[in-house]
Amino acid sequence: MNLCTLCHLCNVLENNIHCLSGATKLFLLSYFVFQGLESYGACQSKAFMKGTLSFVLGATGCFAIQMVLQRKVPYPLQWNLLISVVAASVGSYAITRWETQKCSDLWLLLETGEVPDRSPPRGEYSVWLMEYEF
Predict the structure, then answer these.
(1) CB under 8 Å to 63, separation ≥6 — which residues?
(2) Which end of the chain is flanked by fewer CB atoms within 10 Å, N or C?
(3) The whole model's pTM is what?
(4) What is the full per-residue pLDDT of the chain (134 aa) written as tens digits?
């Protein structure tokens, strides 16, 4: 969308639809300017739900495994809970970050039409190692 179209849209919103609130004007403006905003929002919502679900399932599964192992090596319940919560938090963070990165790539694809390059940059060490055959 070019600048003239954006300015025209702003004038229409300000002059003809004066009864709408500022938030509604902002929503309408963002809808026309950022076409992929709805898809991105849905993707982010799914990513956060996957993270929450992975935390709940991870903590429950880890706690159940520890309860079985506790029969062989007894230790206090507080350690079971602590280990379960920490392990589930790490796993949930990794899953949420992975899914959020995919949503960011989707946003860039929708806005620019190109898939971002996520390959690691080639540093001097990788070039140096490629000179030698192992």
Answers:
(1) 80, 81, 84
(2) C
(3) 0.63
(4) 554 555 565 565 555 555 556 666 566 666 666 667 788 889 999 999 999 999 999 999 999 999 998 888 888 888 889 999 999 999 999 999 999 999 999 888 887 888 777 777 665 555 555 555 54
The helix (H) or strand (E) run that includes residue 15 is: helix 3-16
Nearest to 42, CA basis, from 124, 119, 107, 130? 107
CA distance 25 to 55: 38
Write the CA distances from 3 to 6, 7, 98, integer angstroms. Answer: 5, 6, 35
Residue with tokens 């860039």: 108
Matching residue, tokens 């919560």: 85
